[in-house]
Amino acid sequence: MATKLAQYGSLLALVHVVAGCSADAPQQQSTLREENAAASVVPAKDTKLVVAFGDSLFAGYGLAQDQGFAPALERALSAGGVKAQVFNAGVSGDTSAAGLQRLSFVLDGLARKPDLVIVGLGGNDMLRGLSPEATRANLDAILSELDKRGVRTMLTGMLAAPNLGADYAAAFNRIYPELARKHGATLYPFFLDGVVGRRDLLLPDGIHPNDRGVDVVVSHVAPQVSGALDE
Length: 231
What we know:
Layout: H1 2-14, H2 25-38, E1 48-54, H3 56-59, H4 69-79, E2 84-90, H5 96-108, E3 116-120, H6 123-127, H7 132-148, E4 153-156, H8 166-173, H9 175-183, E5 186-188, H10 211-230
Helix pairs in contact: 4-10, 5-7, 7-9
């Protein structure tokens, strides 16, 4: 893992600008409006509603519509006997601050209260070298709002690239486990576990999983999602 994290850090240093890897904000909001319109279809009573709320890693950046994290997770849950609709609320380029700003918009646009919200933000904060304290505050506010609404949560973590330095990594890496404990959220510690450093599982940018990489991630995450839905 140490070698793969070193490769991860080198790749991130080369593609620091990828923190954007996104369209402009109006286009993102337009996409979200279209997705929220689709979410107006009410899932059946025996179907769990899961919201994947994150950045490009959730949005399916660079992949066909049916190859991203949300549709792959929905298929994996179904294969495991869990009837669930996984709503893709990922926006490429989102920081934790941008996620906090649109959280109420997403939740209020759903047909009903979700059974689980998976929060996957902070990677772009790290890519941009933003303050870990600010990232923590934003994620804390997101989880607090979900707590206030009585929504069960799962947090997918990110690790700081080694090239950002030991002090930054120490401050950033403890955000996710500490917030998960504070809010009683299910924690998946590192979203890219199993794909970091694997060129065969990544897009040419060296950061985002390809369809095979998404399947690896989902194979790890789906059991925890299933367990969280059963709590």
